Amino acid sequence: MSEKYQNSIRNFCIIAHIDHGKSTLADRLLEATGTVQKREMQDQLLDDLDLERQRGITIKARAVCLSFQRDGKRFELNLIDTPGHVDFHYEVSRSLACCEGALLLADAFQGVEAQTVANAYAAIEADLKIVPVINKIDLKHQRADEVAFEMNQSIGIDVDEIIRVSAKTGQNIDRLLETIVDRVPPPSGDPNAPLQAMVFDSHYDEYRGAVTYVRIMNGRIKKGQKLRFLRTGRVYELIELGQFRPKQTPCDELQAGQVGYLICNIKSLDQIHIGDTVTHATGATGEALTGYKPPKRMVYCGLYPSDGQDFVELRDALTKLSINDPSFEFTPESSEALGFGFRCGFLGLLHMEIVQQRLEGEANIDLVQTAPNVTYEVLTRNGEILEIHRPQEVPDAGEIEEFRQPIVRVNIIVPEEYIGAVMKLCNERRGIQKNTEYLSATRMMLTYELPLAEVIYDMHDKLKGISRGYATLDYELIGYQPADLVRVDMLVNGNKVDALSIICNRADADRRGRAVVKKLKEEISRHMFEIAVQAAIGNRVIARETVKALRKNVTAKCYGGDISRKRKLWEKQKEGKKRMKSIGSVDIPQKAFMAVLSTGNDE
Question: Which residue range(s) make up the domain with 109?
Answer without folding.
Answer: 2-183
